[in-house]
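Internal tracking record. Fields below are filled automatically when a chain is submitted to the structure queue. Please do not edit lines marked as system-generated. If the sequence contains nonstandard residues, flag them in the REMARKS field before resubmitting.
Queue: standard
Priority: normal
Entity type: single polypeptide chain
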Amino acid sequence: MTTETPPTSEDTRLRLRVVFGTDAMLGPGKADLLEAIRDRGSISAAGRAMGMSYKRAWSLVEAMNAAFRAPLVASSRGGARGGGASLTETGERVLSHYRRLEAQAAEAGAAEIDALRGLLLDMSGET
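SYSTEM-GENERATED OUTPUT FOLLOWS
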């Protein structure tokens, strides 16, 4: 007989997705992409860092830019000086609001998350 222990709090995370009607959403992947663009100054570098193709990263950026009143990402085409991308003021605000919402949800739901984690089987495969 094996003793089963639930994952630790370090192994557990809340993933929040905000759905705006039927056409727009913001979740952890898009927020991570915004952060990567901010930190790397490039959509392609951000996509590579996240293990996604440039086409997928660009598609997500286009969807976010189309969903909000103002674009979240500003980009310039490559060339002799190279291209680049950065978050707009709106992009910075959207990312900030989303990260604060994540933190608030995690704090408010901590007891319920702990209760759920306590009901899980050990998923590590260790005996």
